[in-house]
Each structure stands twice: as C-alpha cells, then as structure tokens.
Design a protein that fits this description.
With about 450 residues, this protein is of the alpha/beta class. The protein contains 18 helices and 13 strands. Helix 7 packs parallel to helix 10 and helix 12 runs parallel beside helix 18. Bound molecules: iron/sulfur cluster (SF4).
C-alpha cells in the first residue's frame, strides 16, 4: 500500500499526506462524554457528527451518543441559529440530559455562529429547562487537532462551572485534588483515580469516561451510564488543594482556567506513563498531602525488577514514536529509561514546545533524532526508510508503515481501531508500565524468534 513512498525527503509546505491527527470536535465530543448525563452536541452538518461518533465507537467498542444541528444548504448560508434552537428543544424534550455540551465544526465556525448568543436566546425562549445546562467549546478543525478540541471542552467545563469557594474545609474532610487526566482511555482514568485515592486524597476528575465508555455487558442499554463527573463536582472544583493537569497539550488550559476562576493552584505534569512520569505524579500527590502506601512502593519495585530483568532486550534498540504529543513525550521518556534510542518522534498536533521537551528528555541523544510537530505519516515513513527502527509505537494508523517496512509494532494512544481491550487495561501508572513493557518485549522477541536461524532459536530468552 505504501510501496511508492520515496526515500528522498522533499520540502512540503502546503500538502499533508496521511495526517497524524484528526479533527477538533472528536476530542471535544470525547471530553463531553466524561460529564455525567451529558449529551454531546455537534453544531454543524450530519456528516461531521457521524464521522466523530463512529470514530469514537470504533476505538471504544461502545455506542457513542451525540446530537447534531444537521445543517443543510440554508443553514450554511443564513447561519445555524434556527437549527441549534430546534435541536436543543428536541434534545431536552426527548433525551432529558442534565448537560448539553455544544461544540462547533468547520462549517459553523466559518459561518461565524455565536454560540453563547444562541444559547442565550434558547434560555429566553425557555427551551433550556430549569436546572439544566448548556456549555460550549469552539472547535474549528482547520487549526489544532483532536487534542486541542479535547482541551477546549475541558477548559469550557471549568469556565462554566468552577467557582471560588470561601468556606474552609473541616479538619475531618479529606483533601481534594482536581485532576484533568488528559486524552487517555477510561482504563487510564480509572487507574489515575485508584493511585490518587490510594494516597488518601479525594479526587475530582474531569472529564471522567470511566463508567461511561467501559461499561459491562448487562443485556440492557443505558442511555446515560453511571460514570462521568457530575455538575455538582464541577461546581466544587474550588475546594481542591490543587488541579493536576496530566499532559500539557490536553489538560493545561483547563487547570489554568480553574486557577483563574476558583483560585486553585495548578500543577502541569506529564502523563504518568512509565516510571519517571508515575514517580512525579505520586510525588506531587504527596506534596499535596497524600501518603504513598506500601502497596504502591511494591508495584514500583515490581516494575523496576522487570526493567532490570529485561534490560538486555531493550538496550540500544531504535524506536519510532508517533501520535499525540503528551503520549509521545511520556513514551519517549519510558523508552529512554529502558535504554532504547528514540530516533523518530512525530506528532500531528502543532506546538513548538514539543521539540523543546523531546530534546530535553533525550539529552545528548537528541542530536541524532528526527523530531517534528505538525508532521504527517508520509514523513514518518520516509524517516524510517532512511533510518530503520527496531520498534514502532503509535496508534492504528502506523500499521501500514509497520507492514511496508516489516517493523514490530505496538499499538498505544488514540485511536486504536483494529484491536480491543485497551479501554479496559491501563497504560498509566506502574502497572500500566508493566503491561506496556511486556507488550513491547513480546513484539521484539516475537520478531527475534521469527528471524532466528535454527541454531539460534532458543527456548529461554
Ligand atoms: S474536519 Fe471539519 S468538516 Fe471535516 S469532519 Fe472535522 S469538523 Fe467536519
């Protein structure tokens, strides 16, 4: 399929081939699903909404509910206000959500629809029932990526609900930390909560898709599953001793918004993937009043033991990593800690900070690495053709390159469309790192077994 990717790199400024990102509203839709009893609402044409829903459904293997303004030619010319008013009316009458989270699309952004004004009109016309909420995020897809859309909707949650709380907590109250978990799977959000609660802290996580997109099969369809952060919890963000943003790109702006609105200090951390990221996450919790229990020290020890036991298989192996910037940086650090050599790092999400952070993590190894934000998979393929790697880490879209170049491939990040289980098994935390390491090791050793001559085909490796 990629047989014709040429070896020589050419300067390209106006052409993207196989983008390493998708559009903003998908991220906004995913974030909105992490609010309890929230219906995401796509203000644009049906095609956008169908694409976003189906893409999320394919990754999470769960039905994803969302409403749309269903723009036609008329709305494209005269604006989408009538569609949004009618849509909100239908949604509140038929589906009875607590919150409707409106995000825009390329079309409604190009028209210039003013969502707060239209929502104000809906209130004047009593379309929004008492005690129900409509929030919104602008998500034009001709800038940014799905990560930016996720960040914008998280920020919107804070700007609509977070408020300063003056009442002092009682001495018996558990200290609360707010966590913006980043664009990660429900399994990861569940694990971040487990780690945090293990330290004795209470946690308000927003968004929280655990219990929404990883629900068990019961034989009954539940339109609004039990999970998700509640409006009550969002209104109480001001009680937090800090807001921890896990991942600069996906979570920082929301934490800043909570700080600005509710006077809760922010801490910007990396995703807790791998040993270094998880250590820093737990240290931050300890600094905010948490106690690290023996059980977590034990989990860490197990990970260290595994890293030592398998070090010879990873040392010096070249790896290419692509996907979302928060994931790539955390994975780069973990691979570096394993003794691997990350040689190609590429994200489709823009931002100068990416190269700066990747260079800092790699230290002297950065000199020989290709690092690029706003890149595409065509470029990644060319890099790999010019400097082959032993392992490729990234989302499902890497499988074409892995096949073309015959490289062991481990799926990690978003989206994963051709495998299952990732939404139930975390990548974050010490246990997540054990799982990730073992998948990477399997991929490397399966390849070694496959290629070993008869006399080197060993039973014990
Ligand atoms: S890029 Fe724009 S037009 Fe295309 S699906 Fe996304 S929001 Fe819709």
């Amino acid at each position: 399929m990629l047989d014709h990717t040429p070896l020589p790199l050419a300067e390209r400024s106006a052409l993207t081939i196989n983008p390493a990102k998708t559009c903003q509203p998908i991220g906004a839709m995913y974030a909105a699903l992490g609010i309890h009893r929230c219906l995401p609402y796509s203000h644009g044409s049906q095609g956008c909404c169908s694409y976003h829903r189906s893409h999320l459904s394919r990754h999470f293997k769960e039905p994803v509910m969302a409403a749309t303004s269903s723009f036609t030619e008329g709305s494209s010319v005269f604006g989408g206000q009538p569609n949004l008013l009618e849509g909100l009316n239908t949604v509140f009458t038929v589906y009875k959500p607590d919150v409707v989270a409106v995000h825009t699309t390329c079309l409604s952004e190009t028209i210039g629809d003013d969502i707060p004004q239209i929502v104000g009109e809906a209130r004047r016309q009593s379309i929004i029932p008492e005690g129900k909420y409509v929030i919104h995020a602008n998500t034009p897809s001709y800038v940014g990526s799905h990560v930016v859309g996720f960040s914008n909707m998280c920020t919107s949650m804070a700007s609509y609900f977070a408020e300063r709380i003056e009442t002092k907590p009682r001495s018996t109250d558990r200290r609360q930390v707010n966590i913006v978990p980043g664009f990660v799977d429900p399994s990861d959000m569940r694990e971040v909560r487990r780690l945090t609660e293990a330290t004795g802290l209470a946690v308000t996580m927003f968004p929280d898709t655990a219990g929404v997109l990883d629900t068990p099969q019961t034989g009954h369809h539940v339109f609004y599953p039990e999970g998700g952060v509640t409006v009550e919890e969002l209104k109480n963000l001001g009680r937090g001793v800090a807001t921890l943003a896990l991942g600069y790109w996906a979570s920082r702006d929301a934490a800043v918004e909570v700080e600005n609105r509710a006077d809760v200090p922010r801490e910007i951390l990396d995703l807790p993937i791998g040993i270094g990221g998880t250590d820093r996450f737990l240290k931050t919790l300890a600094f905010r009043g948490g106690q690290i229990p023996k059980a977590l020290e034990y989990e860490r020890g197990q990970l260290v033991d595994l890293m030592v036991d398998t070090q010879q298989h990873f040392y010096g192996k070249k790896v290419a990593i692509f996907g979302d910037p928060d994931h790539i940086l955390a994975l780069t650090e973990f691979c570096h800690d394993l003794g691997m050599v990350p040689v190609h790092l590429l994200t489709g999400t823009p931002g100068k900070r990416f190269a700066k952070e990747a260079t800092r993590i790699l230290g002297p190894k950065a000199a020989g690495a290709n690092i690029q934000a706003k890149g595409d998979l065509f470029l990644l393929h060319q890099w790999i053709k010019n400097e082959p790697v032993d392992l490729l880490l990234g989302n499902t879209y890497g499988k074409h390159i892995a096949r073309a170049e015959d490289i062991p491939f481990v799926r990690v990040g978003w989206p994963i469309l051709d495998r299952a289980g990732h939404t139930l098994l975390p990548t974050v935390g010490y246990n997540g790192a054990v799982r990730l390491l073992s998948r990477m090791l399997d991929a490397l050793l399966d390849r070694r077994d496959r290629d070993a001559p008869e006399h080197e085909f060993e039973l014990v490796l």
